[in-house]
Each structure stands twice: as C-alpha cells, then as structure tokens.
Fold this protein.
Amino acid sequence: MKARYLLPVVGLCLTTLSLSAQNDAQPSIVSYEARLAFDVSSNTGASAFYDTGAGFTAGGVAQIRMPRNFFFMPGVLFYYTAWSIDNDRLEALKLYSGSASNFGIRVPVSVGYDVPLLPNLSLQAYTGPWLNVNLRARQTLSAAPGSPFEDFYETNLFKDGFRRVDAQWGFGLNLTWEEHYVLGVSFGVGMTPMRKFSSLHNEMTQRRNSFQVNLGYRF
C-alpha cells in the first residue's frame, strides 16, 4: 500500500526537478556588459574652432530581454575627449596654439533587436538617446613659435558657454559570439548644443557628434 502512494510522489518530485533544470538552462533575462571604446568626436555649428578630437569611453551596460527578440539597454559610461584648436583668427595672427578637453558621464538608453546568425553568433541593432553629463571642460592656449606673447592660458569652459548637460541620439551595431564577447560600432548625433559662445560678435553653437569602436565582455 505504501509503495502505491510513494511512486506518484517520487514521480512528481522528478518532474519538478526536470522543469527546474530546464528553467535554469534558459538564458538569463538580464545580462551585463563591460565596455571599452575608442571614441572619435567632431563638432557641428562651429567646425572652424575645434579639429576632430579623439578619446575613449569605458563603463557598462545592461541588456534586458523583451519579447520577440527585442531588448532594452541602459548604461553608464565615462568618456574623455580632447580636441586641438583650429581657429582661423588665432592661426592667421600666429599668436597661440591650443587644445581643449572634456570629461563626463554618458547615460545611453537604447532599445534594440537581436538577430541570431549562427548557434554561437548574433547581431544586435539598437538606437536611443544619450545624455552627457559634463564634469570637466577646459581649454589651454600656449604661445605659438614667434609670438610676442609668452603667457599660458587655461580656461574653464563652463564659464565660456560650455553646457553641463547635452544630448545625442545614438545608433549602434554589436556582433556577439559565444554569448560573451562583443565587437561593435556606435554613432551619436548631437541633438542639443554642447557649447554656445560669442566669437567676433556672433553667437557660435557647437554640437557633439561621436563615433565609437566598442569592445565588450558580457556576463
């Protein structure tokens, strides 16, 4: 009699363990990616003032799986960009040469779609807004060779029209293999001014455009 009641209980336990193992084998709903990128930054609206700059971004993003291969991807990235100054007036007068740099935190919020290519290879396309919180922005001018001036000038650009916050719209593609390794490219188009300042009685507006080559590892 006892064996007759025991067998259904054992069967129920085995079924429960089997379903639990299947659920554990499914991919996690949330994955995390550590990311490092080489960044190239250009400006629109005041292109005669800064050359194309270079820098890096580093940080992490989370990928949250949604139905039908869609995903939501917020992140936090630190960025650093340096530009050389290309000002026609300063260049013509041969007075100064200089550079500018910007450090801050980027918060991208993207929605994307995952396309499986092979069992261990997939392609992700994503887009969404990027919010740049600028923590440091400085410009340095030094006397050019032959200049009658010898002073060295360092300017806090926040006192010269640089914004504490600017926004971009981002696009990106990631290639992920073995579910861990990520190679990607992304591009951000300036939506709001990075800086507004006066130059020769005209107001100049700078917007940030940036391109990244990303390397990542997904946990």
The longest strand covers residues 96-118. The helical segments are 2-25, 88-93.
